[in-house]
C-alpha cells in the first residue's frame, strides 16, 4: 500500500499495490506499522462499521467525536463512489480549518486515513454506495459533534449539490472553534 500525504496534517490517501496473477489480485489495504513509520500515532482497529447509501447525492457529515472520545478512522468505499472530505478542526494544527477532498471508489480500492480531531463527511457520487469504516476507538454515544457541509468557515467545494441530507446534518450551527 502507498501512503500519499494530503493538505491535512496526519491525513493520508491510501492507494493499493495490486499483486496480480491469472486469478485476479491481492492487495494490502491497511498496515499499522506503515502508518506509524509515517509518523501517525494510531492504535489498532477496535471497531469496524458500514454505511449503506442507496441514493446518489446523499451527504453524511461533517462529524467528529469530542475528546477524549476522538477516533482515528480509515474509510473506503466497498461499493460505488464517494467524494470524501476531511476538515481539520484542531486549533493547534498547522492545517487548522483547511479541508481536503478525494474520490474514493470500490473500483480504485483506495482509502483515506482520517486523524482524530478532524471532521469527516462524504457525498455519494453513485447509487448503491457502501462505505467501510475502521476505527481505533469504541463508539461513544452522545459524544459526536458536527458542522454543516456548506459552512462558510471552511468553503468546501463539493462536486455537486447534495439531494439527501439528514435533518441533524443540515441544521448544525455555524462552526465556532
Ligand atoms: C458513527 C456510529 C454510529 N452508530 C449508531 C448511532 C446511530 O444510532 C446510528 C446512525 O448514526 P449516525 O446517524 O451518526 O450515522 P452517520 O450520520 O452516518 O455518522 C457517521 O457519518 C460520518 C460521515 C462519519 O465519519 C462518522 O463515522 C459518523 O458520524 O448508528 C454506532 O453505533 N457506531 C458508530 O460508530
What topology does this entry show?
Blueprint lengths: L1 E4 L6 E4 L3 E3 L2 E3 L5 H6 L9 E7 L4 E8 L7 E7 L1 E8 L10 E7 L5 E4 L3 E7 L4 E7 L8 E3 L17 E2 L1 H4 L7
Parallel strand pairs: 6-14
Antiparallel strand pairs: 1-2, 2-10, 3-4, 5-12, 6-11, 6-13, 7-10, 7-12, 8-9, 8-11
The site of dTDP-4-keto-6-deoxyglucose has 11 residues, from strand 5, strand 6 and strand 11.
Describe the structure.
This protein is mostly beta strands and 177 residues long. 6% of the residues lie in helices and 42% in strands. It has 2 helices and 14 strands. It has a 6-stranded antiparallel β-sheet with strand order 1-2-10-7-12-5, with no helix packed on it. Strands 6, 8, 9, 11, 13 and 14 form a 6-stranded mixed β-sheet that branches. It is globular and about 55 Å long. It binds dTDP-4-keto-6-deoxyglucose (T46). DTDP-4-keto-6-deoxyglucose is lined by residues 49, 51, 60-61, 63, 120-122, 133, 139, 144. It is an enzyme of class 5 (isomerase). InterPro entries: RmlC-like, RmlC-like_jellyroll, RmlC_Cupin_sf. Pfam families: dTDP_sugar_isom (PF00908).
**Helical stretch count?**
2
Tertiary shape: globular
Largest sheet: 6 strands, antiparallel
Question: Remind me, CATH topology?
Answer: Jelly Rolls
Order of helices and strands: EEEEHEEEEEEEEEEH
Mean pLDDT: 97
Given helix and strand content, the structural type is mainly beta
Catalytic activity: dTDP-4-dehydro-6-deoxy-alpha-D-glucose = dTDP-4-dehydro-beta-L-rhamnose
EC number: 5.1.3.13
Function: Catalyzes the epimerization of the C3' and C5'positions of dTDP-6-deoxy-D-xylo-4-hexulose, forming dTDP-6-deoxy-L-lyxo-4-hexulose.
Enzyme class: isomerase
Amino acid at each position: 500500500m502507498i501512503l500519499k500525504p494530503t493538505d491535512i496534517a496526519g491525513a493520508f490517501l491510501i492507494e493499493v499495490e495490486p499483486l496480480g496473477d491469472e486469478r485476479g489480485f491481492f492487495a494490502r489495504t491497511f498496515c499499522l506499522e506503515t502508518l506509524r513509520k509515517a509518523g501517525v500515532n494510531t492504535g489498532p482497529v477496535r471497531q469496524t462499521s458500514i454505511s449503506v447509501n442507496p441514493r446518489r447525492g446523499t451527504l453524511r457529515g461533517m462529524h467528529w467525536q469530542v475528546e477524549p472520545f476522538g477516533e482515528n478512522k480509515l474509510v473506503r468505499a466497498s461499493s460505488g463512489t464517494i467524494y470524501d472530505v476531511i476538515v481539520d478542526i484542531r486549533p493547534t494544527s498547522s492545517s487548522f480549518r483547511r479541508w481536503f477532498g478525494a474520490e474514493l471508489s470500490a473500483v480504485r480500492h483506495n482509502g483515506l486515513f482520517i486523524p482524530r480531531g478532524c471532521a469527516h463527511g462524504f457525498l455519494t457520487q453513485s447509487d448503491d454506495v457502501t462505505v467501510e469504516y475502521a476505527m481505533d476507538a469504541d463508539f461513544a454515544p452522545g459524544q459526536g459533534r458536527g458542522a454543516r457541509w456548506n459552512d462558510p468557515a471552511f468553503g468546501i467545494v463539493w462536486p455537486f449539490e447534495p439531494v439527501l441530507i439528514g435533518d441533524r446534518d443540515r441544521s448544525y450551527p455555524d462552526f465556532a472553534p
